[in-house]
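G., the chain you wanted modeled:
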Amino acid sequence: MIVVMKKDYTSDDINQVVNYIENKRLKVNVSKGKETCVIGILGDITEVNVEEVQALKGVSKVLKVQEPYKKVNRLFHPEDTIININGNKIGGKNLGIIAGPCAVESEEQIVEIAKQVKKSGANFLRGGAFKPRTSPYSFQGLELEGLKLMEIAKQETGLPIVSELMSIGHLDEFMKSVDVIQIGARNMQNYDLLKQVGRTNKPVILKRGLSSTIEEWLLSAEHIMAGGNENVILCERGIRTFETYTRNTLDLNAVPVVKKYSHLPIIVDPSHGTGSSEYVESMAKASIVAGCDGIMIEVHNNPEKALSDGQQSITPQQFDKLMKKIKILSSLED
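Predicted structure as tokens:
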């Protein structure tokens, strides 16, 4: 349930509504916009008398929220959320460009790629230190050593670090080293992990599960936000379908749908979405036109010899050409 305040509301009006709700032992979420204020009611609303709330001073209307997610819901927070990471913003009209290799392989590799993607316009560096692989015999990442190498690349370039957290046991190291925690598709419904990152204030990129509906994805984001962490970025990375010509089916429908139902920023990963470097440029451009708040692209200086996902990685030269086109497309947005 949400309470929409009148345009001429006062602080006393808000406090009166909040006190009423809290006296019912319910949680409150206050969202102040440019023109109005929305107060979300979280919990068992059966004890709330709608007519009593409607009669409170400054209240315009009371609405019931049909969707099971609340804090994620745009009704609770009408304006777009903007996540600020070390001065780099994602959301609103701010486009986040996250680029780097699927896996950190060496200091020379990660530093070289970081310098090249920054020069082309990237404002975040991605790199996997811990790699969830389908085969136990595939490269699993350099783990904590990989994080240290990413820190070196950050020192060299100033780019904020994005890396995937797979285990609660490594959360402390990620809190020290990483600027944005990525929760991968396989862990989208690892609720213990979501609750733990929800107790931090570290920005989180939540990737959509391989076979998850948009509602399930938003409910996973709700687990993070329910813990108090509102710095959540959603990432569409393709879903598993019957199609075999691409690794996944990149669901660009998710961009406008998420923007309709949620205030959280949404980025797109065309690398995993297609699984082929041949299609990354087309889907990256399509993502921008669809209205996403950023893209995440895998870039490797020698894709043929990459230890992980080389087939979907583009070269720094290809990334540079793509960025020139993205700058043109993003400037055409309303």
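Residues 186 and 286 are 25 Å apart (CA to CA).

Shout if anything looks off.
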